[in-house]
């Protein structure tokens, strides 16, 4: 099968400052003040068209940063992403305005997504139908519960039809019935042969939905492969991690943090 | 130069989006007030009354300027100011404030300042309409020179856009730019003949320099079209050329700065 997304030695470096003084100092004399933090540290892997890749890892490991880089929202510091086709991030809560009503928000968010007048007219009834909001669609969004708001956002987001989709914690929307419905929608994408990146802490969802897993640890790729193999290793890791004492967990976190300060390239030297 | 052409293309292609988003912005801004959009006019009206009372009635004792009573002279100029001041202030903040709303979508970011400006422009149209009625009642009837007003309103819009294209980008990189914009605008306001007429009160050479302030050209243009019935564009053709040069210059710098930083906005916010 053809490769759809190639991630080539991608690194994302952030400068960290302890105070405003350091920040100004670094601006005037680059590299003298502040310290580096490698949010993503030399990750490479290739994804084939039709793959559904789950990104897993503990909090702060860099899953979201990586998904943002693949989605083109954040530029990498070095390395590159070669994506064959249009990439779209399913961002449920982005682009909704609390002051506007549901139906106004549909047009508002569709405009932000770059839809034409005709396309908006075409998808609006589908969104109203999918969101299951009934008459609430004419109420301002500020009166919605968080579940209702997510439903609306999700219903709008899935009208996009890109080749590569990135979902960051999106399928835990609303109650169980709606979550099932969204999962069904995602499976529909999957069956149409779209490449999907799926970021989640819900491991059972990841296991059911993805055929490959990329396990990210401390900004680096620990393991990448078919779901059943990587998932087993990740589960074992989680179990072991839980068995560690509080001090040992802290020591492990610190080891990762130190590694991220200097980055892969320098450690090798 | 390529950036300049891209920006123009992006604006033209997004024309429908800009119009709709501007309308939504007006709705969002005024949703919570009972009087809604009316405040967009009421607010400047109260300020105009104050300026007239202090500068016209109080300090000048209702003397005439260029054969026009002070209050009308001031109204014509200041209507432009209320638009351009708000448009530049809010437009400069546009990318910084609204970036998170559109971060995850393929949104043409140069549209953010322009839809904010367009929203303010609607309020401006209404305000100019009301001022026209006031002038008709006072005996300044519509004339062929109203055609010139369309030109000057378009010029105001273009000037606001060319300035905010640059300042909205710089504000993202260095937040202090917003403060600088505010101070410079205030200075330009008092250095332009919006509230007071400086003829004969200053040495000739200072007056000549002050004419380079683009707000001078716009304020005088509004007056020439609404009150004085002159073809100001032709009579002051040097200023016309100068202002066009200024706008194009700002657009070229602004668009190249915008494209230079566009991919890295997420790093700065």
UniProtKB/TrEMBL annotation, chain A:
Pfam families: ABC_tran (PF00005). Keywords: ATP-binding, Nucleotide-binding, Translocase, Transport. One of its GO terms (molecular function) is ATP binding. PROSITE patterns: ABC_TRANSPORTER_1, ABC_TRANSPORTER_2. InterPro entries: AAA+_ATPase, ABC_transporter-like_ATP-bd, ABC_transporter-like_CS, ABC_transpr_TagH-like, Bact_Polysacc_Export_ATP-bd, P-loop_NTPase. SMART domains: AAA (SM00382). Residues 22-243 form the ABC transporter domain. It comes from the Bacteria. Signal peptide: none annotated. The keyword Glycoprotein does not apply. Belongs to the ABC transporter superfamily. NCBIfam families: PRK13546.1 (NF010066). This is Teichoic acids export ABC transporter ATP-binding subunit TagH. It comes from Viridibacillus soli. The lineage of its organism: Bacteria, Bacillati, Bacillota, Bacilli, Bacillales. The gene is tagH.
TrEMBL record, chain B:
Keywords: Capsule biogenesis/degradation, Cell membrane, Membrane, Sugar transport, Transmembrane, Transmembrane helix, Transport. The chain crosses the membrane at residues 37-58, 70-89, 110-137, 143-167, 179-196, 241-259. The keyword Transmembrane helix applies. It is a multi-pass membrane protein. Its main location: membrane. Signal peptide: none annotated. InterPro entries: ABC2_TM, ABC2_TM_bact-type, ABC_2_transport. The keyword Nucleotide-binding does not apply. It holds the Pfam family ABC2_membrane. Residues 35-264 form the ABC transmembrane type-2 domain. It is found in: Cell membrane. Belongs to the ABC-2 integral membrane protein family. This is Transport permease protein.
């Amino acid at each position: 099968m053809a490769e759809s997304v190639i991630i080539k030695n991608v690194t994302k470096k952030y400068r960290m400052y302890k105070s405003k003084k350091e920040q100004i100092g670094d601006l005037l004399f680059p590299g003298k003040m502040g310290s580096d933090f490698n949010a993503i540290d030399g990750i490479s892997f290739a994804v084939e068209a039709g793959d559904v890749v789950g990104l897993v890892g503990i909090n702060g490991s860099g899953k979201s940063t990586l998904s943002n880089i693949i989605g083109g929202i954040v530029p990498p510091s070095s390395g590159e992403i070669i994506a064959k086709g249009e990439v779209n991030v399913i961002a449920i809560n982005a682009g909704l305005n609390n002051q506007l009503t549901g139906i106004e928000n549909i047009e508002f968010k569709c405009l932000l997504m770059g839809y034409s007048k005709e396309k908006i007219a075409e998808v609006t009834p589908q969104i109203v139908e999918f969101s299951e909001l009934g008459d609430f669609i004419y109420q301002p969004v500020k009166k919605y519960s968080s579940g209702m708001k997510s439903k609306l956002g999700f219903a709008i987001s899935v009208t996009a039809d890109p080749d590569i989709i990135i979902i960051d914690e999106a399928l835990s929307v609303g109650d169980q019935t709606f979550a099932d419905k969204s999962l069904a929608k995602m499976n529909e994408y999957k069956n149409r042969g779209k490449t999907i990146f799926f970021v989640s802490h819900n491991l059972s969802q990841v296991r059911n939905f993805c055929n490959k897993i990329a396990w990210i640890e401390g900004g680096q790729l620990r393991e990448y492969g078919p779901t059943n193999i990587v998932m087993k290793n990740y589960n074992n890791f989680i179990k072991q991690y839980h068995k560690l004492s509080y001090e040992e967990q802290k020591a492990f976190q610190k080891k990762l943090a130190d590694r991220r300060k200097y980055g892969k390239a320098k450690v090798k030297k | 130069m390529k950036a300049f052409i891209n920006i123009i293309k992006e604006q033209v292609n997004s024309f429908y989006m800009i119009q709709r988003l501007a309308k939504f912005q007006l709705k969002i801004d005024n949703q919570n007030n009972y009087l809604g959009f009316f405040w967009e006019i009421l607010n400047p009206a109260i300020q105009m009354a104050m300026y007239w009372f202090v500068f016209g009635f109080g300090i000048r004792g209702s003397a005439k300027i260029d054969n026009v009573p002070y209050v009308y002279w001031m109204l014509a100029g200041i209507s432009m100011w209320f638009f351009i001041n708000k448009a530049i202030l809010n437009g400069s903040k546009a990318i910084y404030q609204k970036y998170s709303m559109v971060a995850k979508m393929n949104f043409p970011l140069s549209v953010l300042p322009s839809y904010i400006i367009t929203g303010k422009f609607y309020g401006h149209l209404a305000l100019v309409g009301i001022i026209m009625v006031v002038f008709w009642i006072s005996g300044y009837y519509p004339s062929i020179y109203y055609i010139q007003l369309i030109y000057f309103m378009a010029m105001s819009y273009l000037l606001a856009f060319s300035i905010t294209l640059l300042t909205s980008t710089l504000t993202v990189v260095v937040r202090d730019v917003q403060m600088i914009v505010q101070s410079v605008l205030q200075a330009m306001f008092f250095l332009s003949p919006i509230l007071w007429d400086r003829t004969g009160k200053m040495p000739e050479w200072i007056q000549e320099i002050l004419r380079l302030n683009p707000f001078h050209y716009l304020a005088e243009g509004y007056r020439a079209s609404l009150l004085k019935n002159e073809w100001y564009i032709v009579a002051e053709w040097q200023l016309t050329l100068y202002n066009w040069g200024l706008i194009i210059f700002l657009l070229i710098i602004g668009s190249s700065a915008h494209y230079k930083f566009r991919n890295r906005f997420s790093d700065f916010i």
